[in-house]
Write a structure and sequence with these properties.
Two copies of one chain form a homodimer. Chain A is of the alpha/beta class and about 450 residues long. The first copy, chain A, folds into two domains: about 1-140 and about 325-455, nicotinate phosphoribosyltransferase (Alpha-Beta Barrel); about 150-320, Alpha-Beta Barrel (TIM Barrel), CATH 3.20.20.70. The first copy, chain A, has helices at about 20-30, 55-65, 70-80, 85-90, 120-125, 130-150, 170-180, 190-195, 205-210, 215-225, 240-250, 270-280, 295-305, 315-320, 400-415, 435-455, and strands spanning about 35-40, 50-55, 100, 110, 115-120, 155-160, 185, 230, 260-265, 290, 310-315, 330-335, 340, 355-365, 365-375, 380-385, 385-390, 395, 430-435. The two termini of chain A are about 50 Å apart. Chains A, B: InterPro entries: Aldolase_TIM, N/Namide_PRibTrfase, NAPRTase_C, NAPRTase_N, Nic_PRibTrfase-Fam, Nic_PRibTrfase_pncB, Nicotinate_pribotase-like_C. Chains A, B: One of its GO terms (molecular function) is nicotinamide phosphoribosyltransferase activity.
Chain lengths: ~450, ~450
């Protein structure tokens, strides 16, 4: 498998759309090497989201720091044909020399607000579009989903069980990372635990029960090795399984250290109540109840609403694929080149021109409203975009530990107006305005571009 | 970033759920090292799917061939604590020694049909669950989506533009791979083109137009470098853009080699018709029209139905995330251990016990019905599961080039009954029966397991 050799996709300059390389060649040929500003933002909140939690910046900065074309990659491009000798020579010394401004990971963002701003020579800023979108999109989709799940769980533990249904290995790792960022407690993925230094937890699978001569024998064997584990009790019949755990407690006495049981099928609310009652009657109040099986924020909210005595939630598929909103319309758009603002007018894909800043206003310890403004505008609001990279080097502001980003995410959720924690879309969402100055720039540029709308050719 | 060092997730034995490692330790401690059979299958077709196209086997076999714990990984596990010294020693020489049976990539499969069958010592077969599910799930979700898009495009070209919205770098590569498998013509992802040796294509982006003093100047500059390219015409106004391409043709005469224009916004059907008319009136019948912008199989079908003269489709987000069915309920379940069939009874997650084969029957050059049977049953039908790995080594049957798998996928789609090509769910879907013999095994095992359902403890 070629993909398993050499530079990995997330490190490789070839992880890009072919058109980026073609445009680069053309920019170099025209000596269009002036500074461009690209902004990464989304236009529309998915239908049942009241916010997006921005994530993925750490990977983006790591990618930009290491970006280069290896000798093998240059040879391969040469063999493909279609590129000029001059361009291929220019790739030899290519690296990213630009500045990056961004909102810190875990920040809540809204429609049309720049999340990442790349200020770099045009060819460099163009090449990186594909990877930047790929990672900011994925990780923001996942962090947003995880923030909703954590919010619905109201302080109960949430664990990422999503590796098997995440879209590939990279997504599986990023589910673990972004879930933790958004407040989940742990992941089941061992590789992710090692990569991000986050807690890893694991229970047992049905196959373990099935492989043994009886459920009781299986449970007894497992706690021989892992006394303080979580036991799975629904392989044959949940309440019969619970009774076997109680029998084990009676048999083992002081040596019984089982922390929890896991319910993985059936009416979880009802089974949790009956299991709790059985354990409490047996004097096993310390045994916790953990639930899994197709959970998402809606089901967790419903279970807690009906008073299900569930202490922790294992969330898999829906945390991993964000099934009700698997995509957000993130774009990466040129807003300025050679110190002139730029825009496009494509039908229903309009673009606010020029380099921007987002100012956030607060009231009574909550976020109140945002204003999207020209970058250099003065405002009493708190600017969201901070410089995280200078001339291709990561700044201290761009080195945020996952723990610190998690704390920032927690604070952001605490600042969110209570009504926007709803799992359904709130009619009057969070207010985001455009500043007068930005609106004027926009109108002026529209007038200047009018010539492009006529069938006559422009002067050039 | 730790994830960028050492073994990559898709090669690492640590890309697994923690519970797999815990169960392994327990199996080793109990000397439960006999042969297990696990089957990977899905229970329910997503609501608007009439088939699933199986994919991902090549990656799975590559993973199994190379599976081991590196010294660093062993050290890390040791540092974590929680595992026995004996188990950690056993990991030193761990590799996968089992057999694998599977349906070839590109095969169309249905509910409850095993797609991959792993026959290996229990601890080995257990460890690999997470990666096998991760890849077969992802690639089958994507191949199925791509097969629908290709089918809807009715012979018109389909190109994967999905890298930026795919869920991570691995998914982006797999979108390219599975789309090609399912009949798409090319990808925009350069890394994927190199990794899988598939055609890579690219046009240009709005930023290129915006960065230039005028749209005309941009188009002219781009064909200077890439004369036979595809030009993007919707940055300011689509038909004004088309007229600029026509003016370019007039200016360049014989040197005008532009192959196509790309429409990326607005009413694509109407704009394609008007663009076609403008080009034809200008004598530019050879200029093709390519469309992109939020396309999926439903929109492509509608565009072709209204007679839109579109020659090729660039499909991005929906091909990449399969938004209408981002997940399939694939599971990997123990069906046999130490030569005895196994099952579970968890509510609405029942399992057909024992090692199985799927036999397919044909009539008048179409697939007619499938029978899920015990593995050793005789049948006139064509068995779908083939041996692809023996004692950890890939067999010739397991080495299928992507081109050959693509041809197999094409034949499979040609064998699918015409009504099942519908984009909506067909009421009476493809018939899949369970053989009498398998039904009897199932009933017998249910009787044997009755003891587990009673509150009394079993003998052991």
């Amino acid at each position: 498998m070629a993909e398993q050799q050499g530079n990995m996709p997330h490190q490789s300059a070839l992880f890009t759309d072919l058109y980026q390389l073609r445009m680069m060649q053309s920019y170099y040929a025209e000596e269009m090497n002036a500074v461009a500003v690209f902004e990464l933002f989304f236009r529309k909140l998915p239908s049942n989201r009241n916010f997006v939690m921005a994530a993925g910046l750490d990977n983006v900065l790591s990618y930009l720091e290491h970006l280069h074309f290896t000798d093998e990659e240059q040879d391969w491009l040469k063999q493909q044909g279609g590129f000029s000798q001059q361009f291929l020579r220019q790739l030899q010394d290519f690296n990213f020399t630009g500045d990056v401004f961004a909102v810190p990971e875990g920040t809540l963002v809204f429609e049309n607000e720049p999340v990442v701003q790349v200020i770099a020579p045009l060819p460099e800023a163009q090449l990186v579009e594909t990877y930047l979108l790929n990672q900011i999109h994925l990780q923001s989709v996942l962090a947003t989903k995880a923030a909703r799940v954590v919010s619905a769980a109201r302080g109960h533990k949430v664990v990422d069980f999503g590796s098997r249904r995440a879209h590939g290995t990279d997504a599986a790792l990023k589910v673990a990372r972004t879930s933790y960022l958004a407040g989940a407690n742990a992941t089941s993925n061992v590789f992710a635990g090692r990569a991000y230094d986050i807690p890893v937890v694991g229970t047992m699978a049905h196959s373990f029960i099935q492989a043994h001569p009886s459920e009781y024998a299986a449970l007894r064997a497992f706690i021989q090795e892992f006394p303080d584990t979580t036991l799975l009790v629904d392989t044959y019949d949940t309440l019969a399984g619970v009774r076997k755990v109680i029998a084990l407690a009676e048999a083992l006495g002081q040596d019984f250290k089982v922390e929890a049981v896991r319910l993985d099928s059936g009416d979880l609310g009802k089974l949790a109540k009956e299991s709790r009652r059985l354990f409490d009657e047996a004097g096993l109040n310390q045994v916790r109840i953990v639930a899994s099986s197709g959970l998402d924020e809606y089901k967790i909210q419903a279970l807690l609403k009906e008073g299900a005595p569930i202490d922790g939630f294992g969330v898999g598929t829906q945390l991993a694929v964000s099934g009700d909103a698997p995509e957000i319309d993130f774009s990466y758009k040129l807003v300025e080149y050679a110190s002139r603002p730029r825009m496009k007018l494509s039908s229903s894909k309009e673009l606010l021109p020029g380099r921007k800043q987002v100012f956030r206003f607060f009231e009574a310890d909550r976020m109140k409203r945002d204003v999207i403004a020209c970058f250099e505008e003065n405002s009493d609001g708190k600017p969201l975009l901070e410089q995280v990279m200078s001339q291709g080097k990561r700044l201290e502001q761009g080195r945020v530990s996952l723990e610190n980003a998690r704390e920032h995410a927690r604070q952001q959720m605490a600042l969110l107006p209570p009504e926007l924690h709803a799992l359904q879309r709130v009619k009057l969402g969070y207010p985001v305005a455009v500043s007068n100055s930005l609106r004027q720039t926009n109108e002026q540029l529209q007038r200047e571009l009018a010539v492009e709308l006529s069938p006559r050719l422009s002067a050039s």
